[in-house]
Write a structure and sequence with these properties.
2,3-Dihydroxybiphenyl 1,2-Dioxygenase, domain 1; globular; GlyoxalaseI/FosfomycinResist; 11 strands; alpha+beta; 5-stranded mixed sheet; Glyoxalase; VOC_core; Glyas_Bleomycin-R_OHBP_Dase
Length: about 200
């Protein structure tokens, strides 16, 4: 499906450059010269080696995601964004036991899962950066009706976003972390069962 940005502009292949929205040319090589066919072959090999049919999978040793902790540059700004704009209730605000003066606070993202934050006053932690081992994006499932409502709220608040496949909206939080709200149910991805 076509990808659209906040203005509804189609972000699919452009005839003028011969590349698609990801910078891939028609020969299957991306802007960095990476051979995409080789990468797909490697994905297929890994999938064939490690992905077991549901009936053959061992049960997970985990009970679920207790919380994911991100870094906040401003506690109140983060609360306003996640609680007031996105609708994730603040459930606790305590001192971070690992760093005196730092706050550790939590938002309810449904099904007993929490999104948590730390702030580090007095430390220059620098701007958000995507690095190996770091956060690429955090995807949170929301009901389709709520998804549409939140997209309207993002518009009203002037938050830039991009919609993909008609069910995913991507945007950045006040500190730059990429957030995806997906209208697919838990355990599904674009109509495919992943769990």
């Amino acid at each position: 499906m076509a990808e659209t940005d906040r203005t509804g502009t189609d972000a699919t292949e452009t005839e003028t450059t011969g590349t698609d929205a990801t910078g891939t040319d028609r020969t299957g090589t991306d802007a960095t010269g990476t051979d995409l066919a080789s990468l797909e072959a490697e994905r297929r090999r890994i999938r064939d080696t490690h992905l077991r049919p549901p009936a053959e999978r061992e049960p997970s040793t985990a009970r679920g995601l207790h919380h994911t902790a991100l870094i906040s540059g401003d506690v109140e700004r983060t609360v306003r964004f996640y609680q007031d704009l996105l609708g994730f209730p603040l459930t606790e605000l305590i001192e971070n036991r690992d760093y005196p003066g730092s706050s550790h606070f939590f938002f309810d993202i449904g099904n007993h899962n929490l999104l948590a934050f730390f702030d580090f006053p007095g430390l220059d932690v620098g701007p958000y950066a995507e690095v190996l081992g770091g956060l690429h994006h955090l995807a949170i499932s929301v009901e389709p009706r709520r998804w549409e409502e939140i997209v309207r709220r993002l518009d009203g608040a002037g938050v830039e976003y991009a919609i993909h496949s008609d069910v995913s909206v991507y945007f950045r939080d006040p500190d730059g972390a990429r957030i995806e709200l997906i209208a697919d149910p838990l355990g599904e991805m674009y109509g495919n069962k992943v769990l």
